[in-house]
Structure formats: C-alpha cells, structure tokens
Amino acid sequence: MRPVAPQRKGPPANRDITDTEVQLIDAEGNHLGPTPTQQAMEMAEEAGLDLVAISPNAKPPVCKILDLGKYKYQAQKKAADARKRQKIIAVKEIKLRPNIDTHDYDVKMRAVEKFIGEGDKVKITMRFRGREMAHQELGLKLLHKVRDQMEEIAKVEALPKIEGRQMVMVIAPVK
Question: What is the pTM of this model?
Fold first, then answer.
C-alpha cells in the first residue's frame, strides 16, 4: 500500500501547477499574457517569490508572482474579518397573556425593544387559558397595541395567527 500524500491547503503554487501554459501576472500587477509554465516559474525564482495559481480553473490558469506565505496570511485575515462581521439573527420569544397588567406589559416591551435593538427578530406569543379562548379579540387587540408601539423600530414579519391555544406574531427590526 502506497503512502498518501498530504492534502495541501490553499491555491496550487510552484511545482503543483501542472499546465504547460499560464496567464501570467507579475509582482507589480502587470499582465504578461500567456507564458510557458517553466518560464513563469523561473521568473518567480529570480524575483525570490512564488508562482501562485490565482484562478486555477481558467483556461489557461491565471497565475501571479507573489509571496505565498503573505498571500495565505492575507486570505486568512480576510476570512476572519468576514466571520467577525457576520451577524446571526436569532428569534427571541416574549410570552404574554390577554389580561396582562400595565407594568408587566411595560417590562415585556422594554425587553422587546432591547431584542430589536440588538438586531434579533421577536416572536410574541399570546397564550390563552380556559375561558380566555372565548375572548381571543382581547389578545388580538393587545398584539395590535404591541405592533403600534413598536412601529418606529420594527416591522411585522408574520401577522397574528392562532395556533391551538396561542396566538403568534413575529416582528423584525427595520433595516
């Protein structure tokens, strides 16, 4: 059984480029056009740099003379920066009851404002128990009050709808 060669990360460079001809870009960024691969490697060695396939799937592959270590470092930094800027939108849930007291309502609305301010969506669940099911219009009225109060900072993404013994509405931050 033959040993398996380790897989390299990153673009093909130097001896890994197997095509006979490459589209060459020198270290200053000048396009030199189609060049034999052997000649391009010699030019890279003379400059003390590497021949790196920037676009290996093109015909002929586009190669550039540059410092491979520096290129990999910059690519790694760019990927880390992209991950750092990425915002994962979560859906937070606030549970209400149709006969909620005003102070309790205000506390819940402050939590909703905080979630919206952080860029998260908020699922507002109105739970009905026992005979409250006979007065669903009270819950709907309360959800409309929430919608009107949050109108400036959030938009309704899912209108109130009944799912069993609860009524659900989703609001999202205004972009």
Answer: 0.54
